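Researcher: Excuse me, tokens okay?
***
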Amino acid sequence: MIRIALLSLLLAATLRAGGTPNIVIIYADDLGYGDLGCYGHPTIRTPNLDRMAAEGMRFTQFYSAAEVCTPSRAALLTGRYPIRSGMCHSKIRVLRNNSTGGLPAAEITLAELLKERGYATACIGKWHLGVWSNNPANHPMKHGFEFQFGLPHSNDMNPNPGNPKLAGSLAEQNPAWWNAPLYRGMELIEQPADQTMLTRRYTEEAKKFIEVNKSRPFFLYFPHTFPHTPLFASKDFRGASPRGIYGDVVEELDWSVGQVLDALRNAGIDKNTLVFFSSDNGPWLIMNQQGGSAGLLREGKGSTWEGGMRVPGIAWWPGKVPAGKVCRDVACTMDIFTTGAKIAGAVVPQDRAIDGLDITPLLFEGGKVAREAFFYYRGTELFAARVGRWKAHFITQSAYGKDGPAKHEPPELYDLENDPSERFDVAADHAEVLRQIEAVVAKHRAGVQPVPNQLEAVMEVK
């Protein structure tokens, strides 16, 4: 054991001497495309994220690989559409607090790749890829993370008896209604967690991790609990935003981003760290004023319209990512897996399909990436596909409407360059484009193999 530890330290020292970069992923929950100042929100104040965009690159066509959180997180960490890992379901949308299923052990996460390269690895925040109190194999530390601090799932999954569960209600902000468990590693340290302090406590843990590991390469995965409802902010932010409690929460997230970037600067490692900020899906629109905004995009969380899956994307690496750059090329969260592996000198797995692309040409070289298509899944069903500027909808469904899915033959077709709000169906004028997209979809379907579903396995409620 001592010999292995010494070898690990030697590898870390060698990597740091060679300038191996740190990687930080900051991931919001249910933050919409239109919720940040740098993406056009008129009243939510996000000076740190605005500065991050001004000092780095802001993507205008950046996607999550799913429209709800469990599959989107699986895709981010594995670089694969969640249908390949069984982390999606057409009816059971996300893992519940009584789920025994989780991210399969056979999946390879970015944390596992980087840990093999001598990186320190941490998951601080919301996991939602399996509940380890139901099945220890679901813990982040079984998937490449050496340190964990946070909630196992969404903050609304442990309601106390009598909770009114009113969508968008101020009652959701009453801490007494919720019983969320907070863990450090396998140890339950607080239940109910004080949700008013979650963002602040996550941030302090992230800063400590950066300080402790500043002399070796590290990977910090920082998936926030908010702005998923119920919404809570600390006393310094509560009531401070003209946008109400939702604005309070987002402005505290912005503060957290500033704290992380300052920690990197203060440690003298900012010029050796790639930071990526994004969101797991679009805004939870049925929460009314407790939910966010997709800006000019159609629909939100739970749908495959643009508002459900096109999200903020900001990359920051002083001296590497050009300052003030706006990237209008299509990119997605799965690309972070492949790009992170590339810059760390890790080998992307060759024994499985990897859907994420290496976007270093976009980030560093002003180049292009040969992306054939982007596919929009809702659960296990392929609802839409984008090829170039064109998006074909084979199936549409309002995120939380009472009507079932509507199948389209021929598919609806939208020109996203001219019509990002998806208002004008131009299928009648572009039969050849539809044929091209359908050929790409057929090729994709042929490469997707059925796998056991992970979201159906649950514990009996007694």
